[in-house]
Write a structure and sequence with these properties.
two-stranded antiparallel sheet, 14-stranded antiparallel beta barrel, 268 residues, 16 strands
Length: 268
């Protein structure tokens, strides 16, 4: 097991390239295209990045998200999520897998979100984390996430999110990273949304994310974005056909290559 945690320590150093370390992901392929953003999303993809957004769901919804990193066949992320609105708030479920045969991470999250006022919502998620390296075994851990969202005006929405604010150790030398994020969405017109976020991972410098969503026609949107750590350019498109939403995204890291993502969501 000592070797397992030595490897974990090494992977935490290079987490921006290969290891996810169970931290929150973008809000599906849509968020990935808009600069890997997540904290102001208010659809079912909120279950991956800021559970408070689930409180604004009006219908039961499900989503599936897949991402391939740097065109490497073995470096993939898969996630499924669901949100169930009720008179008592919205309940959510997220199941995520990241990695490859020799190193992979699993995460299962149970979430709850509720509006405290018409324009203000909070959310929380309890997470089960599992790290698996076949040669050395499995290691499990537990943590939680907290989020909030507020609609300031018809044009401005803000969000904040904390992942694993209490230290959770894998062993005496390695811990689950804490991640703090703040973001804002500004919608100057019905067709344009501007998104900006700042995210601080306890293992990495501040990451500034920004992007634009442009609704070309009612059923089709185009998106672009950028991140600063690591430096990436992102873009993608989305189709909204009735209750079906399909999003495709690409992120370009100029040293490591191209990552691609796909989300399929449905509202009942």
């Amino acid at each position: 097991m000592k070797t397992l945690f030595t490897l974990l320590c090494f992977l935490s150093i290079i987490q921006i390239t290969f290891a996810q370390n169970h931290t929150p992901t973008s809000a599906g392929a849509k968020g990935m295209a808009i600069g890997q953003t997540r904290v102001t999303a208010n659809d079912v993809n909120s279950v991956f990045g800021n559970q408070a957004g689930l409180a604004f769901l009006e219908k039961t919804a499900v989503t599936a998200f897949g991402e391939n990193r740097f065109t490497l066949a073995d470096i993939n992320q898969f996630a499924v999520g669901a949100g169930l609105p009720s008179r008592y708030g919205t309940f959510g479920l997220a199941v995520q897998y990241y990695g490859f045969e020799s190193y992979n991470e699993q995460k299962i999250g149970l979430s709850y979100a509720r509006k405290l006022a018409k324009n203000f919502a909070i959310g929380a998620q309890f997470d089960y984390l599992n790290l698996r390296i076949p040669e050395y075994g499995n290691q499990a851990n537990f943590t939680f996430e907290l989020g909030l969202q507020a609609i300031i005006t018809e044009q401005v929405r803000i969000g904040g999110h904390i992942f694993s604010p209490v230290t959770r150790n894998w062993n005496e030398n390695n811990s689950v990273p804490s991640v703090f994020a703040l973001g804002v969405t500004y919608q100057p017109t019905d067709k344009i949304s501007l998104v900006a976020e700042a995210e601080k991972n306890s293992f990495a410098p501040v990451n500034i994310k920004a992007g634009i969503n442009y609704q070309i026609i009612e059923a089709l949107s185009f998106r672009v974005g950028v991140t600063t750590f690591p430096v990436q350019n992102t873009f993608g498109i989305g189709w909204h056909i009735g209750d079906l939403q399909v999003d495709v995204s690409t992120a370009i890291h100029y040293l490591l290559g191209v990552s691609t993502g796909l989300s399929v969501g449905y509202e009942f």
